[in-house]
Amino acid sequence: MASDGAPSVAQTEDAEQARWKTLLDAVVTMAADLSLDELLERIVEVAADLAGARYAALGVVAEGGQQGERRLQTFITHGITAEQQAAIGDLPRGNGLLGLLIDRPEPLRLHDIAEDPASVGFPPAHPPMRSFLGVPVRIRDKVFGNLYLSEKPDGSDFTEQDEQIVTALAAAA
């Protein structure tokens, strides 16, 4: 630590190197013989770890889903218990911010989800979430789905470095 309590340059560089090593290890793991469900769960877990997110999800885009219809066919979460999922209810349809990423598949970082005009709020029993990072997952230049991350433990926003490493993970998927 620097004398003012902030991490030193060397500590910051070490932490960044550790994140990239985690990414590389994840890519090697993804090349292993995993089922599709296991692979998607692994991607969500690694994304949360890399960005320091309390919550993470991967929404697989439904073929031909239009605005107002179900646009996500699968929604894999990390950080939410089975009891919380049951209380929340049905998986998201892919509207609001999730739909924005479906319509405009490019990285999106927000300080506060509720302040964004595209936000449609959360269902009852959903844990509170403020900070947000969304990144498209493409396979052969076609959007397969999106990674959604929320809530860094210290309450800070997601950084450009978080965006870069999660985008690299999404590209490796």
What would your notes on this structure say?
The structure is a single chain. The N and C termini lie far apart (35 Å). This protein has helices spanning 9-30, 36-51, 82-88, 96-103, 160-172, and strands at 55-61, 72-78, 108-110, 132-139, 142-150. It has a single domain, classed as 2-Layer Sandwich (Beta-Lactamase), CATH 3.30.450.40. With 173 residues, the chain is α+β, with helices and mostly antiparallel strands. Helix 1 packs antiparallel against helix 2, helix 1 runs parallel beside helix 5 (160-172) and helix 2 packs antiparallel against helix 5. Strands 2-1-5-4-3 form a five-stranded antiparallel beta sheet, with helices on both faces. The model has no long low-confidence stretch (mean pLDDT 84).
Topology (SSEs and partners):
Elements: H1 9-30, H2 36-51, E1 55-61, E2 72-78, H3 82-88, H4 96-103, E3 108-110, E4 132-139, E5 142-150, H5 160-172
Antiparallel strand pairs: 1-2, 1-5, 3-4, 4-5
Helix pairs in contact: 1-2, 1-5, 2-5
State the gist of this model:
Helices cover about 40% and strands about 20% of the residues. It has about 170 residues and is of the alpha+beta class.
List keywords for this structure.
173 residues; alpha+beta; Beta-Lactamase; five-stranded antiparallel β-sheet; 5 helices; 5 strands; globular
